[in-house]
Design goal:
Layout (H helix, E strand, L loop, with lengths): L12 H10 L4 E2 H11 L8 H13 L3 E7 L5 E7 L1 H25 L1 H6 L1
Antiparallel strand pairs: 1-3, 2-3
Length: 116
């Protein structure tokens, strides 16, 4: 996919995607970025300059925590995992996202929305 076809993140969206990516279990930063890119069919590109500030923000809010570990290629890495507070926040974010997506769809496709 060309760079011009990639999609910019909406404010707060990266935090939500990181929380969702950590739902199955702990992951290090590179794995988080790769999972978001892979699961979006490479439409979403996660830059380190955005990812690590987001991870620090999520730690500060108590939504994730980190611990040192060894990556799959035997390198020391920081692994991040959801906290109970983070799981609860992910549920809130899912609800907000669904509401937001429906609102955008109603504006972009008013005829289809009226048919619902």
């Amino acid at each position: 996919m060309s760079t011009g076809e990639r999609v910019e993140f909406l404010q707060g969206t990266l935090d939500m995607l990181v929380l969702r990516t950590l739902l199955p279990g702990p992951a290090h930063g590179h794995a988080i970025a790769h999972a978001i890119e892979r699961n979006s069919d490479d439409v979403l590109q996660v830059e380190q300059g955005s990812l690590y500030p987001a991870l620090h923000r999520l730690i500060k809010r108590g939504w994730i925590q980190s611990e040192e570990g060894v990556s799959e290629n035997n390198r020391r890495a920081k692994f991040y995992c959801l906290t109970a507070k983070g799981r609860a926040q992910l549920a809130v974010e899912n609800t907000r996202w669904d509401k937001f997506a429906r609102a955008i769809a109603r504006v972009m496709r008013p005829a289809e929305s009226e048919a619902d």
